Known about the structure:
By secondary structure, this protein is an alpha/beta fold. The chain contains seven helices and five strands. Helix 1 crosses helix 7 and helix 3 runs parallel beside helix 4.
Amino acid sequence: MTSSSYHVVIMGVSGSGKTTVGHNVAALTGNAYRDGDDMHPAENIAKMSAGTPLNDADRWPWLTTIGTWLAEQPSGTMVGCSALKRSYRDLLREHCPDVVFVHVAGEFAVLAERMQHRAGHFMPASLLQSQFDTLEPLEADEVGAVFDVDQTEEEIARQVADYLAA
Length: 166
C-alpha cells in the first residue's frame, strides 16, 4: 500500500487503541501518524491527570490546534484524537474539510480492562465513563467508518488501511 494525501482522525474514547491503530495503519500506508495527546495544553493534561473530565471549553483550543495542524499537512497525515462529539468533528472539518474519521470502538468493560493495565498514560480509567457519556457516534453524513477493537491489532490495521485505500 502506498502513501496517499488523505487526512485521517483516528477517533474513540480513551483506551480504544487510537495510538496503536494509528501507528499500525501508518506502517501499512506510508502516511505519518501523530498522537493528538501530544498536542494537549499542559492545563488539560493536569486536569485529566487529577481525574477531572475535560469540558468543551477545555477541548476547543486543543481541537483547533489539531485541525490547523491537519490542514497544514498537504501530503496527508493521520492523528489520534478522541473527537467524541459531532461538534468537535465539525470543528476539525472547518480546518480540514476532507478529513476522514476512523472510529475505533469497543464495549465499556473491554476498554476499562485495557485501561487498568495501561502504564504511563495521564488519563485515568476513572474518566472512561465520562467519555462514553460524551461520545456521539458518527452520523450518516460524516465521512468515516467504525472498527471494532475486539480483533487483533493487525486485523484492525488491515481493515482500516483497506478502507482508506477504497
